[in-house]
Amino acid sequence: MSIKVENLSYTYMPGTPFEHQALKNVSFEIEDADFVGIVGHTGSGKSTLVQIISGLIKGYDGKVLINGIDYADKKQDRKLLRRQVGVVFQYPEYQLFEETIEKDIAYGPTKLGVEPEEVERRVRAAMDLVELDYDLYRNKSPFSLSGGQKRKVAIAGVLAMEPSILIMDEPIAGLDPMGRENFMRLTKSLNECGLTILMVSHNMDNLAEYTRHVLVMNDGELFMEGTPEEIFSDYDKLRAASLNLPEVAQFAKLLRAKGMDIPQNVIRYDQLKAVLMEKLGGKQL
Amino acid sequence: MMQNVTIGQYFPGNSFMHRLDARLKLVLTIVLIVMIFFVRSILGYVSVAVLVAAMILGSKIPFKMALKSVKSMWLVIVMAFVLNAFFVKGETVLVEWQFIRIYRESLLRAVEMAVRLVLLVMISTMLTFTTSAKEITDAIESLFRPLAKIKFPVHEMALMMSIALRFIPTLMEETDRIMKAQTARGASFDSGNLFSRIKDMLPVLIPLFISAFKRAEELALAMEARCYHGGDNRTRLKVFKLKGIDYLAMLIIAAEMAFIISGI
Ligand SMILES: Nc1ncnc2c1ncn2[C@@H]1O[C@H](COP(=O)(O)OP(=O)(O)O)[C@@H](O)[C@H]1O
Ligand SMILES: [Mg+2]
Q1: What's the average model confidence in pLDDT over A67-80?
Q2: Do A263 and A238 sit in the same domain of this protein?
């Protein structure tokens, strides 16, 4: 599903000394089945932005259209929005509350009014996706799991709602490198099944590797927008937004400084590898 | 979802009101509140109102903010007014309509009650607006220090209080976060009868308690790791000491007190 944001502005606690404008006239469009990364320094308004798109913050200026529909409009059914947009918050493991993993994952779909048999199928499918064995884990308490496993349960709880848009706010923060990699692969496969993905992250490497579109936020404004190649090769502009290049791009930059001719758009590991192979006259392994 | 709460909020600043000694502010606030109940004349109320206005000016907090605190208490104020106006018997009947009788005396009393409440709310808000929770607990600890002689755990009480106050905003933030997360999972918190509403709150309350316990444990560990021990022989970073402006404030309140007690 597509997302369209028009002239979005939002101020926290207006009319008090704590007044803070978190978003300033932000506009962009996301196509159906796109994989979009959002980066920006802490406090740049990323969480506010994704929460407004998810319909969790009200009272903003501007418009948010999900597949052309404005859910701020009272005539629209908000349940429909819940069904279409899944949200994974930062540290989602803190939202677990049920006695068993199965019940916790079933909470969302049950709330949406899905039939019990269908709920069970979805719980199975969701646990399968996050690689938790259904028979082994269904009756365990979510609180008996490790941090990483808890997060899997929480994410399964959102996937079981079978959203068309998946919005994630720093979902890989605090995971180990393997966990991050696995999570990005899972997200990619969901995206390939047609889900529109919107992912806030500070991990430039993972975003460069997996996304197809990147938004850069800076002090509440949309600072840059484009393909990962465009964004992650513009060192000066990224620095201006207090961000840095992905490691591969940093490495390419160092090689360039040493006089090696490496194209600007090299930001991914396999791209760099291919270029270096060619330069060094080596054969493809 | 939990935004725009102004009651009990602290506005950092460096105004006259902010710089007053917290102990003194606490005591004078209580004195002033008690004094409101001794006012006997319109002039007396005007003098308190002028004093409150001066306090707001002296705190550099916009009048609008100070009034907002009254707004959040409007229900209580209206209730006090209505109860006094309609249900207290007097002598001179002003309005008579079916079973409703409004007496001149009770109407005046009702107005007086409402004025008192408004002043009371404004005075106590001035304290919380200009004094951080930390300062208030330190002040309480310092004022209750003599009780330590009879083995009353003053320091422990103050510590508990400051920790509790410190975690209110954190817990509110946490509640907001969890409520949003569960809303995204299809929960709704504003529909249904009382029973189903309580049930709807469980997905928020359980994670909230779990995280509160976790925080408590982490805090205890952190305190222990930094060799925290009880009240004896502890020194403070900020030592209370009365300054010129504190004596000025005392003088003003004493004058006000004399004015009210003289009953003009
Ligand atoms: N509930 C809130 N009340 C007041 N200000 C807030 C609140 N939430 C966020 N802010 C402020 O809004 C700005 C943007 O916050 P946020 O969207 O969380 O940024 P990010 O996710 O990019 O770190 C920050 O400066 C933050 O202090
Ligand atoms: Mg954030």
Answers
A1: 85
A2: no
Domain count, chain A: 2
Torsion of CA B44, B50, B55, B57, to 10 degrees: 180
Domains of chain B: total: 2
Measure CB to CB from residue B181 to each of A85, A92, A112 and give the nearest one. A92
- The answer to whether the CB of A44 is under 6 A from ligand 1 is yes
B142 & B33 share domain = no
Answer yes or no: is the C-beta of A42 below 6 A from any ligand 1 atom: yes
Using CA coordinates, name the residue in chain A closest to B3: A13
Q: How many CA atoms lie within 13 A of A147 on its CB side?
A: 9
CB of A223 sitting under 6 A from ligand 1: no
Residues A6-28 have pLDDT tens digits of 999 999 988 777 889 999 999 99
Q: What is the pTM of this model?
A: 0.80
- Residues B140, B185: one domain? yes
pLDDT band at B9 (very low <50, low <70, confident <90, very high): confident
Question: What distance separates the 2 farthest-apart alpha carbons in chain B?
Answer: 73
Q: Are residues A144 and A268 in the same domain?
A: no
Phi-psi region of A19 (alpha: psi -120 to 50; beta: other; left: phi over 0): beta
Indicate the Cα dihedral angle A58, A64, A66, A67, nearest 10°: 150
Which pLDDT score is estimated for B1?
Answer: 43
Neighbouring-strand partners of residue A64:
A5
Provide the token pair at B72. Answer: 């959040």
**Residue A37 tokens, joined:** 């990364």
pLDDT value, residue B2: 46
For residue A35, the CA-to-ligand 1 centroid distance in Å is 24
> What is the H or E stretch that residue B112 is in?
helix B104-130
* Domain, as residue range, for A269: 246-285
